[in-house]
Amino acid sequence: MSYQTTAPSSVLRLLADVGGTNARFALQAGSLGEITHIQTLPCADHATLGAAITHYLGQQSIGQRPALASIAIANPIQGDRVQMTNHDWSFSIAELQAAMGFQRLELLNDFTALALALPHLPASDLRQVGGRPGASAAQSTTALGLIGPGTGLGVSGLVPDGQGGWWPLQGEGGHVTLPATNANEQAVLALLWARYGHVSAERAVSGQGLGNLYGALTQRDTGLWPDQLPSAAEVSQWAQNGQDAKAQEALALFFAFLGTVAGNLALTMGAWGGIFLGGGILPRLGARIDTSAFRERFEHKGRFENHLKPVPVWVIEAKQSPALLGAAKRLDSLTRA
Questions:
Q1: Number of domains forming the structure of the chain
Q2: Radius of gyration of the CA atoms of the chain, in A
Q3: Rounded CA separation 197/191 (Å)
Q4: How far apart, in whole angstroms, are the C-alpha atoms of residue 320 and residue 39?
Q5: Which pLDDT value is given to residue 336?
Q6: Alpha-carbon 276 to chain mean position
Q7: 187 and 251, same structural domain?
Q8: What's CA 41's distance to the chain center, in Å?
Q9: What's the CATH number where 305 sits?
Q10: Do 43 and 83 sit in the same domain of this protein?
Q11: Is residue 88 domain-shared with residue 138, that is, in the same domain?
Q12: Are residues 80 and 193 both part of a single domain?
């Protein structure tokens, strides 16, 4: 959703990628400018999004304030009021625009922004996991899917607009019901059902989800839910160090569930052009996905297994947040309109 007045496309822009844990900010001098002054701020260090923006701008030696702003945020955008799902920030878009003095403010879901960046990502930012060798998303004439575990589970995608461009999808696919494909998964999900009522994909395939899986495995083995769940970083470290069998099983379940959900997304969208895996967790796990059950689960769709075998999957390993690029692309399309 945007609030706007007319402004030239060459003016200074504020770009942001706001998640449940961190907010990344950057500046861009017009639509053709390089994305610079990138800085990450912990959300918990600032009472409001406006306070975080003010803090960021106060640290930049730029001599002017941005006239345009595009903010990708880990939340659905429905009307003027935004209440973050995975953080306590709540604000009015119109009031934020007025307080910051922006001529134009654009708010979009963070995974919609990431989707807008997909055709522009260089090969060096991607690592392919199965499918057609050497496939290129930029050359696709069919849909592209996007799913990514971070603090939560983001889902989006692109569909061709019929004119050589793309339409991004805005949705909340991370909250679809998570299915089990074997008895062990069903037992784990039953414990999560008892605890949460509804078990969405995000309950298992996210940073929080890794902790939930560890908790469910602990309860399965001991009868007791842990007093405190470990963080995603702790579960990952324990699993990769080989020092905790439950952590290794939790990570194995995480990859298997991710493969199931990603395969479902590919079939639902007809994303034969490929599926991108974003979010902050997977790049930290390196090549572990290659030896996991991810690809087998991705393809394990009965009569449609052969349809999924050639579909490429890419892990996004960009050093710079691609959602910042997507936020800029959003402004590009609107200021040209």
A1: 2
A2: 20
A3: 10
A4: 10
A5: 55
A6: 10
A7: yes
A8: 18
A9: 3.40.367.20
A10: yes
A11: no
A12: no
Per-residue three-class SS string for the chain: CEEECCCCCCCEEEEEEECCCEEEEEEEECCCCCEEEEEEEEHHHCCCHHHHHHHHHHCCCCCCCCCEEEEEECCCCCCCEEECCCCCCEEEHHHHHHHHCCCEEEEEEHHHHHHHHHHHCCHHHEEECCCCCCCCHHHCCCCEEEEEECCCEEEEEEEECCCCCEEECCCCHHHCECCCCCHHHHHHHHHHHHHHCCCEHHHCCCHHHHHHHHHHHHHHHHCCCCCCCCCHHHHHHHHHHCCCHHHHHHHHHHHHHHHHHHHHHHHHHCCCCCEEECCCCHHHHHHHHHHCCHHHHHHCCHHHHHHHCCCCEEEECCCCCHHHHHHHHHHHHHHHC
The amino acid occupying position 117 is: A
Identify residue 162 by its one-letter amino acid code. G
> What would the mean pLDDT of 291-318 be, rounded to a whole number?
96
Please give the model's pTM, rounded to 2 decimal places. 0.85
Answer yes or no: do 309 and 328 share one domain: no
Task: Looking at the structure, tell me whether residues 64 and 145 fall in a common domain.
Answer: no
Close Cβ partners of 173 (under 8 Å, ≥ 6 residues apart): 147, 153, 155, 156, 201, 265
330 and 306 part of one domain: no
State which residues form the domain around 40.
2-113+321-336
What pLDDT score does 335 carry? Answer: 62
Which tens digits make up the pLDDT trace of 43-85? 999 999 999 999 999 999 888 899 999 999 988 898 999 999 8
Q: Do 155 and 62 share a domain, yes or no? A: no
